[in-house]
Amino acid sequence: MPLKKEGFFQNESSNMTFSAGVVIAHIKTPLSEVLHWARKMEHEAKEMDDNKDAFAIAVLKHSGEIEKTVFKWRLDDRYITETVSQIVSEINKDRLSNTFIKRLNQEMLRLMGKGSQFAENQMIETEMKRLSIRSCIKAKDESKEDFEKRKERIAEELRLSEILMKSKSMNNFLSFLNIADFIARQVKGGANEN
């Protein structure tokens, strides 16, 4: 039995898919370039695999640097955008330092094999957890025991190793984290963009 929902007709048993291209650009970036990148990102999202249902984000920085990533919307039981929101929230509440993203970039690029594929999954997973735990910031009124529990919880909730394994490449994964960091900085106060 079809259902009318927000302008769409949907069959209860049908699996609708949604692919999107998103561009975040500096205000002085020409609109034609932004639209070009939006179409390009939508195309990359649709081309991810035959099932589509993916999103692609590009950040066009004023410096000319471009970060882009492509992922499926869902990671098993959770939307991957929830991880971006959690990273942004933890950084903005000063409960997580963005240094773990910077260190992951430095260290993971050294561990990559040819074609930006991951060589040692277990070693990478351990290092990601270690770096995310070390980047947690203790609140002034937080007990040491509560801080230790929170560090473990954040490392588990981020599920970075699962996101990495679903990623097309290490570069795609690192761009995902770099975009989350960029969004956090802009939300927090528009730190100087490079």
UniProtKB/TrEMBL annotation:
One of the record's GO molecular function terms: nucleotide binding
Keywords: Antiviral defense, Nucleotide-binding
Source organism superkingdom: Bacteria
GO BP terms: defense response to virus
Residues annotated as domain Cas10/Cmr2 second palm: 9-56
One Pfam family in the UniProt entry: Cas10-Cmr2_palm2
Name this polypeptide is given: Cas10/Cmr2 second palm domain-containing protein
